[in-house]
Amino acid sequence: MSTVPLQPPRRLIEITVDGEEVRVPEGATVLDACAAAGKDVPTLCYGDTLTPKNACRVCVVEVEGSRTLAPACSRRAEPGMAVGTATERARHSRKVVLELLASSTDLSTTPRAAEWIAEYGARPERFGPDAASVAQPPKVDNDLYVRDYAKCILCYKCVDACGDQWQNTFAIAVAGRGFDATISTEHDAPLTDSACVYCGNCVEVCPTGALSFKTEFDMRAAGEWDESRQSRTTTICSYCGVGCNLTLHVQDNRIVKVGSPHDNPVTHGNLCIKGRFGYQHVQNVPRAEPTVLSSADLLDPAGPAWGPSSASSAGGAAPSDG
Amino acid sequence: MDLRFRDAEPSAEERAAVDALLGPPPTGWEGGPRTEEDLRFAAGGHAARDRRDLLLPALHAVNDRVGWISEGALDYVCRRLTVPPAEAYGVATFYSLFSLKPRPARVLHVCTDLACQARGAGAVRRTVEETLGPPGMSWQPSPCLGLCERAPAALALEAGDPPKTAVHGPLAPDLTEREEPPAEHAVPQAGQAGLVLLRRVGAVDPASLDDYRAQGGYAALRHAFRLGPAGVIREVLDSGLVGRGGAAFPTGRKWEAAARQPDHPHYLVCNADESEPGTFKDRVIMEGDPYALVEAMTIAAYATGCRTGYLYIRGEYPRAVRRMSHAVAVARSRGLLGDDILGRGFAFDIEIRRGAGAYICGEETAIFNSIEGYRGEPRSKPPFPVEKGLFGKPTVVNNVETLVNVPPILLGGAPAYAATGAGGSTGTKLFCVSGAVARPGVYEVPFGATLRELLDLAGGASGTLRAVLLGGAAGSFVRPDELDVPLTFEGTRAIGATLGSGVVLALDESVDLAGILLRIAEFFRDESCGQCVPCRVGTVRQEEALHRLNRRPAPIDAAADLALLREVGRAMRDASICGLGQTAWNAVESAVDRLGVFSSPSPSSSREASPS
Ligand SMILES: Cc1cc2nc3c(=O)[nH]c(=O)nc-3n(C[C@H](O)[C@H](O)[C@H](O)COP(=O)(O)O)c2cc1C
Ligand code: SF4
Ligand code: SF4
Ligand code: SF4
Ligand code: FES
Ligand code: FES
């Protein structure tokens, strides 16, 4: 078990970032090169476990000789490329993108959004009080996680995680077009009527908090969510022999959220319903209503209480993927 | 992939519509009745999923028969093609010609776009509303229908077996149907000497292959076989032909790059999505001289090593779809498509795909996603289509007009072709002249003719000319004192304009320019695919700002809104993924900067005072 896989040696290519020469392995992105040069380029739709969708455009940089700006997250570094991360042009587009997003979407739980808005001098309020937004009530249709699409920036990460890049369940997709586009199940059905298997892999990658554990959602609503009082402990899931790493977020001695390290070679951040949501049994506290999934639910051959009433169709929400 | 379905059942009619396209379901797994046997094996895997490209045709089949797509029908399509229902829902809701809610079988699509607006679409809309009630059920406003020479236009689509269509242009006040005029009706020059691309329109029977051959058809393909693929590419390179779809990329270079690709198969895609407001030239070619496009696609495929070509025609062109389908079928039956074309061992065939109401599907990578059965969202480039295009394979995408230039190039020779035109713009160009002119229509002139000459050909402006929109919604406005601009790529660029897809929309003093700008903004907001933030939200903010600027009396903070437009426009141009977002502010910018729209006469908010 001690063999270390050797990567074939990769050629290094040289590019300049803000006038500074950096060398990155062939195949690296401009974002990698910016990181190597110590530049902090904002990203939102980029995910370390996903193929870049380059949809948000907050990471745009100026590439010498290019007609338009380039998304750093997906553009491959090429030998001799000259990249400007802080040119007036790049900063202008980043500022406007932040203004467009912040004026249409609730970014209150998007990490670093407020910092970037200040850094780029973005003024989302300039579009006036009547500016169209995606404000809408959160979708609370199951006991495990909440979809609050008023916070959704349509980064496609949840769709990619649910679809062919990880989970292969395809419970959600982008529906509609343009500003009316949303993340949706078929016919906007509740999750409990959809193909969702509650792996929570979409929650894991959501960059805005639009998708969150029901625990987090409820605690935030009650004003109890406090990350400064939370500890994170990485352990191994005890449900089956795969050996997934779990990171337990614990506040006041209660598990409030479960993740998995994105660099874990087994999970790449992905889990199944048991590892993600089946933690209630370790907490020796009286159950609060509404119930979270319990071990008894999992052992119940009829399926968990929150499952679809008619479990007639294939797939279903039964935890069959362990 | 483990598909999960809800309990919705298709109606017998919906099932029949899908089965008419796909054949009866082979097993219970694909939506047929469940049998004992189905319990002992599982269908699935790649074989089941590989037919995803039939999703769009299957959705059309249901929508054509029933008028809308129910939950049961969508589920049935998904079972037949092994597509997750959420994804199919995402695809169906992408297209404006599909409805996921019940609606009447017959829906009138009333054009409210630029050329029609310049010719009284506002009044028409009010009449329609009085007769048919509020929009959304039996009628709906529509972007440009490509019938601009007959503005104000409308298109009636009636579901059924078979579905019916009727084109109204101009729409009669009492909404009665009139017979559609022949294609050459849109070509005032028809029959004149000197035409190249339009020479057969009106002269040839579009249904007759024999007539096409009698008028010189298929001589170019024979010549291509003599030249060989490399020889054809050389001729096209030497001719200086550049793409007519809007991006003006040299066609020979595209073909050469594709032909070189070691990965196979190669695909040819002919882009007949023609949805740029004010554009109708490709429609006229497809309706008036369909075999010319079949022959041209065959030559392109021969040169670039393609076995299969897709002809993607916008869904609002029923007659073009009918004529092209007929031409392809006849050519196939006569050995001009198929495994052994003209007995020369060359194999090529054409599949026709119908769009379903989405301008963005004309973008060269969005068209791949649309054909493949995904949402018509542009892909990021690189990789470019010639490397990884349709189904991930090397692909040549060309516009209809670009392709029909190729037979004349081969027949006359590259030098003769290159001798026509001016500077780097060789050959002739089709212009779609509409709006305030005496004889709107498609005109063919050599590159280098001036805008004034073109307008004169069309009978001159029918009022006091206020401006000309060149290049469509993604183009820019030209002033009456600039009419001597030579119509070449270089000439228009020199004055900060563009030829785009050949739109020449004349606007006289009677037209409310600010209203035209609003319509342009609304068009981009409606047609944005929604993928990237600058375009998805930027087009909304652009429209909102124009609404504010349009308010009477003029708002006091017009300068702030103009600055906002400029800043958002710059970010859309710089940071959007594709050409739609990148050009969404072009026309508005040119109207502000060149025509002085929104610069009020009071000195405090004059054009000079607005920040730039
Ligand atoms: C939003 C958008 C819409 C487009 N629509 C069309 C179209 O309807 N027809 C077309 O030929 N090209 C269209 N284009 C241009 C195509 O991307 C592509 O450049 C063209 O089809 C290539 O063919 P060509 O080289 O023969 O011009 C569109 C581009 C964009 C960005
Ligand atoms: S929980 Fe898992 S199956 Fe459900 S939508 Fe999210 S990624 Fe898809
Ligand atoms: S829900 Fe989250 S992950 Fe999904 S698109 Fe919206 S912001 Fe992205
Ligand atoms: S620019 Fe607009 S149409 Fe193009 S990819 Fe972005 S959102 Fe879609
Ligand atoms: S992070 Fe690069 S485009 Fe979103
Ligand atoms: S048909 Fe109405 S604008 Fe073209």
Q: Count the helices of chain A. How many?
A: 8
Radius of gyration of chain B: 24 Å
Largest sheet of chain A: 5 strands, mixed
Percent of residues in helices of chain B comes to: 25-40%
- What is the CATH fold-level name of the largest domain in chain B? Rossmann fold
Please give the oligomerization state of what you see.
Answer: heterodimer
Sheet with the most strands of chain B?
Answer: 5 strands, mixed
Indicate how many domains the architecture of chain A comprises.
2
Q: Look at the helices and sheets of chain A and give the structural class.
A: alpha+beta
> Structural class, from secondary structure content of chain B?
alpha/beta
Mean pLDDT across the residues of chain B is 94
Q: List the helices and strands of chain A in order.
A: EEHEEEHHEHEEHEHEEEHH
| Poorly predicted segments of chain B | 602-612
Terminal residue distance of chain B? 53 Å
- Second CATH tier, the architecture of the largest domain in chain B: 3-Layer(aba) Sandwich
CATH class of the largest domain in chain A: Alpha Beta
CATH architecture of the largest domain in chain A: 2-Layer Sandwich
Count of DSSP E strands of chain B? 16
**CA-atom Rg of chain A in angstroms:** 22 Å
Sheet-strand content of chain A, in percent, reads 15-25%
